[in-house]
Amino acid sequence: MAQCKLTPHEFIQNAFSPMVAVMCSQLVDQTCQKNNLSFVEMIQPFCKLSTEAHFREPSGTSVAVRNLRVTMLDVNSRPPQATLARKLLNESVSLSGSDRNTSQQIGGQTVDIPASVPWFEAWRETFLQVQFPSDHEFTKHYIACILVVSSAENNPVETVQHMGLQLQQLQNITPAKLPKWFGPGVLRYYVLVHDAVDGDNDKAETTFNVLKQTYGDNNCYFLQMNSRPPGQSEDQNHLPDPWSQFLIRQVDNQEANDQDSSPRTPAEIGGVTGMPTHVITDGSCDGETSEVNNVLRPGVGPVIMSALEVAQEAGENAAPITVEHHPLSPDADPQNFVLASSDKNHVPNNDVISATSHINANVWVGQGNQTSTATQHGAYLTTSDLDHLRMLVQEFCVKALLPHVEKQIQQLNDLISNKKGVSRSFLSATKRWFGSNKPGMPGSSTQVNAVIYSSDAPELQLRRLGDLYFMFGDYSLAFQAYHAAKRDFNADQAWLYYAGALEMAALSAFMRGEVTQKAQGYMDEGIITYLNSCKMPQFATRATLLSTECLKGLSLYGEAAKQFIRMTSEDSDLRSALLLEQASYCFLKATRPHMMRKYAFHIVLAGHRFSKAGQRRHSLRCYKQAYQVYENKNWSLAEDHIHFTIGRQAANLKQISEAAKAFAHLLTPSSRQSATQQAAFLREFLTTQQQLNTEERSLGNALPVLPLPLVDGSAIQVLLGSLPPLPFQDGASNVIPATGITFSDVTMGETDIRWSKLEELLVAEAQGLLPMIFKPTVQLYSSTTNNTTRPTGIVGEPVTVCVMLQNPLHISLPLHDVHLLWRFKKSSEVTSQLIDNEMVPETADGPVLTQHLESVVLKPDCIQEVILCVTPRSEGEMQILGIAYQMSNSAAQQCAEPSNITQHTISVPGKQVFTLRKPIPKVRGSQDLHDRRLEISVVKSAPLLQVIFRDLNSEMLCGELQRVTLEFQNTGNAALTALYVASTTPELFSLGQPLPQQPGVHQVTHVVAHLFPGQTHAVPMWLRAPDTKGITSIEMLFYYENANSNSNPRYRLVRHSWQLTVLSSIQLTTTALRSSAAVWNGMQEILNFTLCVKNCNQVHDQLMTEISLLQISLASQVWQLSKNVVVPEDVRLQAQEMVHFVAVAQRQEEDGAKRNIFSDVTLNQNRKATGSLSESPYIDFFNRHFAGSTKISADGPDMSAYLPDPSVSNTGSEINKDSSVKDMDAALKVEATIILRWKACVTDGGGKKRSAIGQHHLVVEKIGTPITWPLEPTGPLQQQELMGPLRIFHPHDTSSNSPGASEKYAPIEILQKLVTYNVWHASQVIHDFKKSRLCVTPVMLTLQNCSDRCLVVKVNTLGNSSSASAANKNQLYSPHSSSSFRWVGLAGTWLELGPHTSGKIYLSAAIGSPGTYDLGSRLEVLCRSPGAPEADAVSQRWHIESAFVVSSAPSSGL
Q1: Contact 1439, 1368 (CB under 8 A)
Q2: Could you please report the per-residue DSSP string of 24-37?
Q3: Residues 1431, 1405: contact at Cβ < 8 Å?
Q4: Burial of 844 (0-12, 13-18, 19+ CB in 10 A)
């Protein structure tokens, strides 16, 4: 808590120190003026005794007097007039300050408060000095008078006698006026001043002896001074001046002029105009004012004005107050007076009435008529002279004053004792019994302060006695006297006297150290009586100042704060401000509980009242102290009030920098003010900042950092290079530049990984191998990238920066001339001279070209992306520091008329400095990392590839082929070479080149060895749309190297990605079936491919497609399409239409080359050839479709997305199968691909047509399994069914890890389809059954081994009883074929067949009657591996039907 210099006991003791009048002759003042001091001023530093003195009580007990201090004033001095008193009080506060703060920890929060409060102490001391003495107390009455004469007088003794007569006249004036005396017997003390250099020593000694003989040795003192001759004067400027602190507060008798009374602050001007400067009688009810020259008695007017108003700080209360005085008081008048505070007329300034005074001229060192040179005091005084002054006070107090006080105490005690039993008047007794004993009670009808006491009244004598005891340190007897007087005053309802007795009784109890709750109640009652009953707030204020010191001394800070707050009112802003500040410190000091918020609230109130009183410096200090508590408490409105007041006060005090900081705090994201209020705050800030810039412009300071807009440092992105241009139309061609990298790519984490994978593939392909540590190229730097290395920029290529600017206000924020701030260091210079564009204007030959945005308007409550760029022009190091701009207020919100917008607009230049967060090391204990994304190394030259796509559509049909032209242009300043391209979907592109070693990478070999700067090269490229409809993201990465292999960077990249909308085209379904027909010559196998083509276009689609089939091709190592195919003429499939046809493929002899054989069948109506599949680009897409196309993803290559049917894909168990099993599996494998080429006529919604060609691939893996591509969309349940049945494993199940029976032996479904067969015989026979009962016909059975393994085949002929006979019945014959035939001859035989070879067996069938017979029935074919037991032979599942008609020959007899 802010501490006072004086302890409570010292303050109370000094406040009630004995008053001593000093009367000096003119020659004494002349002698003292050699030292620039009057006698009273000279004696001030020595008015406190340094030793202990004693006096005796009436009982004979010795009382020790410690630290006695006497107050010496000129007998002609008067308290200042109201105007000057107000000025003194204001100056005492404004001229005091404390630069030293102390920190205090309260409740976990630290606050800085002043270490001391000298302004409050100065105001308190001045407040006590400007008070007029009152008749209800004697502490401010003179108890003695020192008569000072000079030895240089013509007749010093006569001068002393004349001064004694003047003193007698002052004491005997009736009615009494200023000065006021303690009693009739005032101590007189005589001092003879002798100038040691200019005076006559003999005359001085003679005169002093006469004085001692006349007035006594103890009442006289010889004071020698000015012992230093003028020639021996020493410069004492380096020594402390003991008189300076007393001269500031000293008051003399000279009359104040208008300049001394002039106000210093705007608040004082209002106060001065409301000063009470004249008196209005009660009869002036009409409000007219009148002069009172003829109404007031001489000497009364000024006293009446000052007794109440001065202590109220010169009448700040505008309400008139009625004052009633004691009849014997010098302030009394037969009439009642009302004090007015609004007239400008002054009381006439004549010799009798005028008692005004002003402070010493040495005080006002700051006025215009005074010099600023410090005045030297005591130049002619030696050390012995100072000792004489000190001894003067010592002798006066010990030998004269204390004996006089002892005598007065004895006399008063005897007087009080003699009159104690005397009865008072009948009226007084009546009041005691029937009147109220509390001030202001309803039963009390006595007018306030209307009780009359004579000067020798016992009550006043008792008060005199108590004051003597109190002033000289006998506090116990003082308490007894005040307590007794309090009862008498209460009984007489003399409330002013009663309040004074209560006040002094409470102080006596505190000074003697026996404070009780009752004693504290005395002080509270006294203050309330002063306020409510006596209507004298000046005495209530004094009592509060004294009481609070006592309470603080007792650590009762809460009670002290209450008393401070009680004395705050609207009549005095300065007093209220000081008391509120002291109350806040009391709250801060309180411990149970801590009252931090009360401290902050009351210090804000104090700052507000300081502001109203014109004390801006103290108002600013209070608000700063309060902000320490309200800071970061989310009380935004309270913070806004504090910051706004701080800004206003600092601006008025010419602290422009402080004001700008305060106004800047009003523009925060947490502001809850309305848009109108925020606009006002913004205007205040801009106005203040404009003044600050004007002051600092001459100093050459850097641009100020403005509070708006906010910049998110973590969101800053740096792009090496410019943003890609937008697509445009070049004649009939649609030109699309490569998309490159944009700022929207920063959040695509998985995409960045895919690009890194592509770059890794390109580097491996171009350079042969990857470096030991591969770091992907970073072109867009953000908070998610690795920014530990400096980015590399190229001379002439822009560096683009994306900044997120936030406007948290509810009003728009216009910015002008927005550009980047940079610092550049040229690498060619030896010295490290740095060039920046903040203070130095840019030149045409500067190292960096800066882009300027003319205007950017940030909308209310928005975050806006602003893109700026700089282009380096020379090699070196460039650092981007921040952004600079001109911020202005929104004139449209300030002015309603558009014509006045210009004059209301304020523009202020400023900047925002980029602050990047420090990256967190991934490994604990590793070295610190630095974010260097804004520190760019600029190299001299590098190639720059620009890629353009011509005729690239954004919509395509599934499987559609489109020709696109790629144009490469080197726009850099160096040659490039080794141009490569990679894609995540390489199966969709064809550049007419064979498959590379790395999947997905295609080297552009059409480019010459070097592509020089400015050179352009075009390359055709075919694009095939995916087979599934939807939106597909296609990504391409171009790689090229600098022709100079030692350059940095060695290679560069160009990205291109776009969204391709794929629409449905056709759906192809096929099934491969074995044919039972065989060719006689060679006995080759035949497959039938049944195909169904459907146009998937919907009737309600925006695009309508009409599809024509052009060509079907088969790619296989062993199968070749037959040219004979039957298709409908001119097939044109409309929406949802489909066509069916069959293609026949024949097995060819294998030559061991293991290469695909392409066979084509034309399907168009004119049978025109459309080009072989072996030509480009058709063969390219076929090869990419089956080259193990790799899809680059965040997790690595993924092949499954490009397999036509996941259910038939090979698994890892294929490796563990036995070779014999593999040979048998070949019986069902086709391993062929059907390629269907088609043509479509596409009509859009506007009727525009275009022609498109396409190509579909369908992989046929297995015989008898239908294949559809593209697949129909399936739900989760259907997808589960396609994946096969669910298998449950247990912990000991090892069937999936070790080869089992299913891997050693072929499945039964394969073993049953290894061999096919057919029968050959005559279709019809005419037989004469009369001649021969049996018709025997020869039958040839052909067997075909479809596997890659040698087989042993056995043919069994079955009888009628065989189960096979029933199984082979067919419903194709009506009536049913006859089964009454028998196989005769060979009944069962074994035949060994080689891989894919055929064999013949000759059988005979015996038929006993005419009819139709199915000779394909009742045959069983079994096969087994050579060497296998016959029991392992498996019956083949093959069904043939062969009709044999037997007709009976006509009878020869007919």
Answers
A1: yes
A2: E-HHHHHHHHTTT-
A3: no
A4: exposed
